[in-house]
Amino acid sequence: MKKTVPIAGLAILWIGAAQSVAGQNVPSLKDVFKADFLIGGALNRNLVTGRDPNAADLAVRHFNTATAENDLKWQRIHPQLSEYNWEPADSFVAFCEQNRMFVIGHCLVWHSQVPRSVFRDDTGNNLTRDALLARMEEHIRTVVGRYKGRIQGWDVVNEALNEDGTLRNSSWLQIIGEGSEDKRYDYIECAFRWAHEADPNAELYYNDYGLETSRAKCDGAVALVKHLKSKGLRIDGVGIQLHGGLTYPSVEGLEYAITSLAATGVKVMITELDIRTQTRGYRGADVSQVSRDSTSDPTAVAAETQKKLADKYAEIFSLLLKHKEDITRVTFWGVYDKTSWIGGSPLLFDRNCQPKEAFFAVVKAAQRQ
Ligand code: XIL
Predict the structure, then answer these.
(1) Ligand 1 proximal residues by C-beta, below 6 Å
(2) Smallest Cα–Cα separation from 112: which of 45, 160, 42?
(3) Number of domains present in the structure of the chain
(4) Active site residue 181
(5) For residue 285, is it within any domain?
(6) Angle at Cα 342 formed by Cα 337 and Cα 343, nearest 5°?
């Protein structure tokens, strides 16, 4: 007896086939920007372990660099004082190597996603300055040392600054800085020194958000870079995270950040690019204030929103191309909308991995230069 496939079934098969080749008939971003800068994305566990093959296809086709979204963070890689959890980071690095991607380690020293116990002794009291420095040294030497020659660039210190450019009052600063002026950069200096000693060939970066929206914060980063350089320490680049929105950053703000950072002699990288589609609510990128729920966005897919998104991406990429001599890398924080930490529709590929208007706007910006 001849088997018949119902029409509806065929339609589903066809849609499935179209989706599985998502982004395959369009230019590859890494080729489009080959002469300008590296292009990458933050990779999550599902992608690296094969549970999200469509995301992996997109990453392999479009990216020549990748950052682990969470796998290298202290909390995940070093959950207890005497316990390292290497499997997630190992598989991330292996995925990047298989696909010949420039591998970024994110991040060594940060106030977030680090167990509180790192800062305390057995009795629950804060550690002394020397004891915390010893823990930080052990962590950096162990993690950087394990991936020596394999992770090519490290976010050594993440988000150490306040909006006004002063140093954030994190446990790192409170304990190691001991509240004293002459010790205030100590933990940052030590982190860069130990990372360099653990892998002398790795590039080392300072990474932060809001550098493109607050001149004072950007000036704080410039001062930090100058300080490290004055101490003879290696710092190769500053990462502007660039968690933007439909109406920010301004061209002036982003250009100020790129030019003033580059003037210190470091390379500039856009390290966590996304454009929030929701227009209400919290605008910044402080992880303690952002959650998918607080940013869920019913208007995200509306044509008007997507047009604004495309325009903002086009504006940003035109500016990045103008400064391509100073910019070495542009990394999206996620691969397609479903993988984004802020919800809504902030990336170039939609929830079905299909390229959006914003994708084509970015490609056009490259063709116009
Ligand atoms: C975010 C991840 O995307 C989330 O999965 C996690 O729950 C919280 O951290 N700045 C950074 C990134 O440097 O590490 C943050 O990543 C986003 C803001």
Answers:
(1) 69-70, 158, 241, 272, 285, 287, 341
(2) 160
(3) 1
(4) no
(5) no
(6) 50
